[in-house]
Amino acid sequence: MAAVSFRRASAGLRVRKDTPHTPRMKLPLLLLSVFSLVCAVRGDDYEAREFSADGAKLAYRLLQPASTEAGKKYPLIVLLHGSGERGDDNKAQLKHGSALFLKPDVREKFPCFVCVPQCPKDQTWSAVKGWTGPNAFQPEPTTPMKLVLGAMDQLGKEFAIDPDRIYVTGLSMGGYGTWDLITRYPEKIAAAVPICGGGDAEKIAA
Predict the structure, then answer these.
(1) Which of 58, 181, 187, 200 has the smallest set of CB atoms within 10 Å of its CB?
(2) How far apart are CA 65 and CA 165, in angstroms?
(3) How many of the other CB atoms lie within 10 Å of CB of 84?
């Protein structure tokens, strides 16, 4: 797994893989260990929320920093779950990874907002064809992905979120979704950690 960061260069957008020794990558490297934790998360740890647009709805959970300072902005991490956690209970998506951000030492050292959306049943984060065949990139994002972007924008207006420190990670179907998101909107994402997913790095760099 490699943490991929995005920074604007004079000639356009540059994609590079950072090493564990790169200071700016501390939070993205933390994401690499997110899915190593699989444990129960109490429903009230993450606030249950919903975003609606164009007649469609996206359920998601939000964890806020344990404490904030006036005038300071904080990172936003978006966790995209796999196909097994789809549904409408706004709970199943917390199964993998979200528990890490509840650890007291993590919350103290890495204060941030964590958004965990839930993809509806029989839908997907990414507009690719199949899991093992040619992953043809589709012109339009899926409805759940559009809603994720809308929720991200809404959170940016509602809370003190640093627009230059938005990170995304995902597992399996969420890994494909992570690639899909950074391919379409690299300017929105500071770094990404797709896990067990697929995508075209050349499209990101284009």
Answers:
(1) 187
(2) 14
(3) 13
Which residue shows structure tokens 């991490």?
A: 77
pLDDT digits (tens, 9 = 90+) for 63-72: 999 999 999 9
Which structure tokens are listed for 70?
A: 């006036």
Rounded CA gap, 52 and 32, in Å?
30
Rounded to whole angstroms, the Cα distance separating 141 from 65 reads 30
CA separation for the pair 86, 93 (Å, rounded)? 7
Please tell me what DSSP assigns to residue 19.
Answer: P
Strands of the 191-195 sheet, one edge to the other: 12-17, 4-9, 191-195, 161-171, 74-80, 113-118, 56-63, 47-53
pLDDT tens digits, 155-183: 999 999 999 999 999 999 999 999 999 99
Q: Which DSSP string corresponds to 75-118? A: EEEEEE--GGG-SSSS-GGGSBSGGGGGSHHHHHHS--EEEEEE
Going by pLDDT thresholds of 50, 70 and 90, the confidence category of residue 127 is confident
The residue type at 140: E
The length of the chain in residues reads 206
Beta-strand pair 4-9/12-17:
antiparallel
Residue 64 and residue 126: Cα distance in Å, rounded? 26
- Tell me the C-alpha distance between 55 and 53, whole Å: 5
Helix (H, G, I), strand (E, B) or coil at 160: coil
